[in-house]
Amino acid sequence: MRWLSPDEERAWRAFLRVVVAVQRGTARDLGTVGLSEPDYEVLSTLSERPDHTSTLGEQADKMGWSRSRLSRHAMRMEARGLLRRAPDPADGRGCLLVLTEQGLDALDNAAPVHVESVRHHFVDRLTADDLAAIERIARRLEGP
Asked: Is 82 helix (H, G, I), strand (E, B) or coil?
């Protein structure tokens, strides 16, 4: 076992603090318009898809969630009128997630709040070099 050096430990803990702080801030800000971060991700992703539709499996993969977790979340979103679930003709066991007009309206209302929140809690606190470094680091950490 290779334990973390003091420098590595500080860097790891700093990374965790940053992730928590940014997510807490953006989640709080989205909450003012009645959405959670997962709600916003589902709605924004569906808005970018042809016919505002995605399979449950594709959406779960994008979010890094299990299908069952997303299915339960989608049920709650459907009950709020933000999306509807429909049978997937290509997969008898799967379903499609379809953005509703109410969901699109909620997204249109939330998008400016979300962008301002991301700016406030992240982008505007960093330099162009900082942002480039984060992007470079993220590329190194993506994948297996």
From this structure: coil
Using CA atoms, how far apart are residues 62 and 9, in angstroms rounded to an integer?
29
Helix, coil or strand: residue 67 = helix
Supply the pTM of this predicted model.
Answer: 0.88
The torsion defined by the Cα of 100, 105, 106 and 108, in degrees rounded to 10, comes to 130
Q: pLDDT digits over 119-130, tens only?
A: 999 999 999 999
Could you give the C-alpha distances from 34 to 13, 20, 26, 44, 106, in angstroms and in order?
Answer: 31, 20, 12, 15, 8
Helix-strand-coil split of the chain, %, nearest 5: 70, 10, 20
CATH number of 37-110: 1.10.10.10
Which residues have C-beta within 8 Å of that of residue 100, sequence separation ≥ 6? 81, 82, 83, 84
